[in-house]
Automatic annotation (TrEMBL):
<dbReference type="InterPro" id="IPR013785">
    <property type="entry name" value="Aldolase_TIM"/>
</dbReference>
<comment type="pathway">
    <text>Amino-acid biosynthesis; L-leucine biosynthesis; L-leucine from 3-methyl-2-oxobutanoate: step 1/4.</text>
</comment>
<dbReference type="Pfam" id="PF22617">
    <property type="entry name" value="HCS_D2"/>
</dbReference>
<dbReference type="InterPro" id="IPR054691">
    <property type="entry name" value="LeuA/HCS_post-cat"/>
</dbReference>
<dbReference type="InterPro" id="IPR050073">
    <property type="entry name" value="2-IPM_HCS-like"/>
</dbReference>
<keyword id="KW-0028">Amino-acid biosynthesis</keyword>
<comment type="similarity">
    <text>Belongs to the alpha-IPM synthase/homocitrate synthase family. LeuA type 1 subfamily.</text>
</comment>
<protein>
    <recommendedName>
        <fullName>2-isopropylmalate synthase</fullName>
        <ecNumber>2.3.3.13</ecNumber>
    </recommendedName>
</protein>
<dbReference type="Pfam" id="PF00682">
    <property type="entry name" value="HMGL-like"/>
</dbReference>
<keyword id="KW-0432">Leucine biosynthesis</keyword>
<keyword id="KW-0808">Transferase</keyword>
<keyword id="KW-0464">Manganese</keyword>
<dbReference type="InterPro" id="IPR000891">
    <property type="entry name" value="PYR_CT"/>
</dbReference>
<dbReference type="InterPro" id="IPR002034">
    <property type="entry name" value="AIPM/Hcit_synth_CS"/>
</dbReference>
<feature type="domain" description="Pyruvate carboxyltransferase">
    <location>
        <begin position="6"/>
        <end position="267"/>
    </location>
</feature>
<keyword id="KW-0100">Branched-chain amino acid biosynthesis</keyword>
Amino acid sequence: MNREKVQIFDTTLRDGEQVPGCKLDTKQKLVIAERLDNMGVDIIEAGFPISSPGDFLSVTEISKVVKNATVCGLTRAVKKDIDVAAEALKLAKKPRIHTGIGTSDSHIIHKLNTTREDIIERAKAAVAHAKSYVEDVEFYAEDAGRTDNAFLAQVCEEVIKSGATVLNIPDTTGYCLPEEYGAKIKYLKENVKGIDNVTISCHCHNDLGMATANSISGAINGARQIECTINGIGERAGNTALEEVVMIFKQHPDLNLYTDIDTKQLNEMSRLVSESMGMMVQPNKAIVGANAFAHSSGIHQDGVIKNRATYEIIDPADVGVNESSIVLTARSGRAALAYRAKKVGYELTKTQLDVVYVEFLKFADMKKEVLDDDIHLIIAASKIEGDLIKR
Ligand code: KIV
Ligand code: ZN
């Protein structure tokens, strides 16, 4: 079976930047956009041009520097938004306007105070207007996750007729279960005329911790674009994490799906975004967290020292991490102590290791983590200095 490409649409600079307190200036956004482009992202959502003069400027400047990726600007289904986005994108090599409107009953009744018929008319008009500026128009059906499938299919069919090239099916509130979200994509594939001529996109939020699972389920069921952010940042509990979906496709060739992301850049990219936004990455974050390749229990350490693959499914080098780390704590065993002692210059015999290990445990019970400097102290306290082979 032929492998198919899933396009990576990065929205770190738009949905990601909606995190309170994490606003970036244009200079910071330019640095991130150039790095995303270099890493192989297919589409960069650079901002929401009508939202502020600063965002307009960012989209304009990003459009000038991005070499390979499509540059995308967000709009509501409002004529003025689209005019402003088109203006901001006019120097982009590959511009895309991303327009849309709420389609769930909750949005139609409570937010927009209108009818389904009116939503269809506004969606069609927005897509047609965007199409008068650019060839590539993406339509989002906001809150598609909670939209009735038959109505969603009707909206999709109409916007395809108006010229949409990409259909974004956002689970805006992070409500769907993976099976349910996958079934929604399958339903659209089977019930929307013209769907095979457009790309279906997954845009999932993480309110129930299922953004990545939902996006993968969408791709398994026919979506060929995933919208995501570095470190999974975004509104509330965040968006699908780019590094997670990319590594899932890499680690599961059985899915027959791939991306063009240079995975070796993932770790550095994560740091750049975290530092620019002043937003720490949780240590246990998949792929890019500080502990993603750290082993601290004795049983695991022994296994990893013998063969990395016993407790690691990803080679750290594949995501730009130098090596796995063996963290010394009171839960560590002799194998880990010998390994770390060797790294700081001590080749311990089995008898020496037994003596040093007793001292190590006393020390480790007093500290959360035993560091390289502590190893020297522990060895000195073990009083075997004279017989030691020091490399
Ligand atoms: O979550 C969402 O529905 C969005 C749209 C604006 C695409 O971010
Ligand atoms: Zn979103």
